[in-house]
Amino acid sequence: MxxxxxxxxxxxxxxxxxxxxxxxxxxxxxxxxxGVAWGICAILDRGATREALLRELTARYPGQESLEEDLDSxxxxxxxxxxxxGGGGGGPSACS
Length: 96
Description:
96 residues, alpha+beta, Outer Surface Protein A, domain 3, 3-stranded antiparallel β-sheet, 4 helices, 41% helix
């Protein structure tokens, strides 16, 4: 089982009807998310391993191509922007 991923202590995620807002209170960085990125953030807000994230995304978005690649890419972006805590994002080796 991999590390539990979630948002950093300075990050706030707010769900909106058409997506979500991710805000870092320390840096003022703001990111709007929608689609699969919104789904990832909604799951991360509860905390989940990379494997659990991928399972839930597969159930939420059946038939969606490249979910695993999208997940790893987005986790890497969130980690580099300081929004992510936990395994550091980006692929099985970084999160398992």
